[in-house]
Amino acid sequence: MPIWDRIDSSVLVKEPGKEACSCYEMEMRFNGEIIQMITQRTLHLTSEVKAKVRPLIENIYGFKSTNQESIKCRNCKLARQLKDKFGLCYWDLGDKKNNVPHSGLFRSKLNQQAANLLWYRNKKDEGIIFDKFFSLFPMPALALVYTAAECCIDEWSDGEWVDISFSSGDYREDHGILDGILMELNNNGRSHAKVDLIDVGDGDCLSDDEINKAIQEYQQGGGADGSDEVESDLESEGG
C-alpha cells in the first residue's frame, strides 16, 4: 500500500488515535481539523526523511555531480544496479555478469546512519522518548527510509541529479525486514544516543542457525561496508 494515501488519511489517523486514547484512558472525536493537523505532520515527516537520506545516498554510494560523461555514465549504472531487484537493500550488489546474487539483505550502512540521524540524535529524540515503539525498531520506519532512498536514487537515474517529488503514488512499502535487524538498529541507536540498551527475552532473538549464517555471510563478504563492492562491480561493467 502507498506510504500515504490522502483518500485513506482519516483511517490512518483514527486507528493509532484510538490506541493512544485507550493508552491514556481518554475519549476524543476526530474531526476534520484534527485529521488535517495530523496528516500535515505526516507529510512533513516524509519530506524530512528524504532531505536527510539524500546526502547519505550520495556519500554511501558515491553519486557525483559533474560535467564529465564518464562519471554521468557511472551514476546511471549505479542507479540501475541499486534499483535492480532491490539492490539498495543489500550489503553486496553481487555480479550480474557472473551470476553472483545480491547478499547481506538489509546490512547496508544506510540502515544505522539513517536511523541515528532521524530518530536517535540525542536523549530527547523520538527513538529514545518513545522506546516502547522502537523496540523492535518499527518496520514502517525502516520501510520509509528505503522508499525515500529509492526516490533519491531515481534522482540520479539520468546521470545528473534532478529533484523528484517523494509522492505516495510512486513509492511503496515493498520491503520485508527481519526482527533481528530491527532490534539491532534500535540497540545501536540507543548507544548512539548514549542511553542504556533494553533487555529482551530469548523469544525475541534470532536462532543460533540464523546467527551463524549471518556471521558466515559477514565474514565471507569482508564487512558491512558495501562501497568497495559497488566500485568493483561497476568496474567489471566498464564504468
Give the radius of gyration. 20 Å
The fraction of residues assigned to DSSP E strands is under 5%
Specify the number of helices.
Answer: 9
Poorly predicted regions are 1-7, 173-178, 201-206, 222-228
How would you state the average pLDDT, rounded? 75
Counting helices, strands and paired strands, the structural category is mainly alpha
Shape: globular
In N-to-C order, the SSE pattern is: HHHEEHHHHHH
Number of E-state strands:
2
User: Taking strands numbered 1, 2, ... along the chain, how are they ordered across the largest sheet?
Assistant: 1-2
Explain what you see:
This protein is an all-alpha fold and 239 residues long. 54% of the residues lie in helices and 3% in strands. It has helices at 9-23, 32-61, 69-83, 110-119, 126-129, 139-154, 179-192, 208-221, 227-236, and strands at 90-92, 103-105. It has a two-stranded antiparallel sheet with strand order 1-2. α2 (32-61) packs across α4 (110-119), α2 crosses α6 and α4 packs across α7 (179-192). The longest helix has 30 residues, at 32-61.
